[in-house]
Write a structure and sequence with these properties.
about 140 residues; mainly alpha; about 70% helix
Length: about 140
């Protein structure tokens, strides 16, 4: 993430890996949540970084989404994605939270995971930053 922030000339917002880590810890669903406020410029910078990262991951994202559409013949990619996503949630998020429990619920999470992947695939386009910013503003 630091290399991407440097590529996007965001060194003034994210001068080190520690500064990025501190912003990540502002997420109220994380186990080690800090109550610091994130300013609009930092939020915008994180959206830019996420959009840029999705460009690198687009081939993988596309393969996962298409494997979900072809679940019967090729379930491996979707299953691997879902397993890893759940593993990360259990490792880093507060699993006592109802929101996090819903993310781990198989029936509820299928649609949620699809939405995440589709949002990231749209964020990988030339207008991806604007699309992702619109999605984040309307959560």
């Amino acid at each position: 993430m630091l290399a991407i922030s440097n590529k996007l000339n965001l060194q003034h917002l994210f001068p080190s890996k520690v500064s990025i880590w501190k912003l990540r810890s502002n997420n109220p669903m994380r186990k080690s949540h800090s109550g610091n406020k994130i300013n609009i410029e930092q939020f915008d910078g994180l959206i830019r970084i996420t959009s840029e990262m999705s460009k690198y991951l687009y081939p993988y994202i596309r393969a996962i989404v298409s494997s979900k559409d072809n679940q019967i013949n090729k379930p491996e990619l979707w299953n691997d994605f879902q397993y890893r996503f759940i593993e990360l949630i259990e490792e880093r998020f507060n699993t006592e939270s109802i929101i996090v429990k819903n993310l781990l619920n198989y029936k509820y999470s299928q649609e949620y995971y699809k939405k995440i992947l589709l949002t990231l695939s749209l964020a990988s386009s030339d207008e991806g930053y604007n699309r992702l910013k619109f999605v984040m503003a309307n959560l």
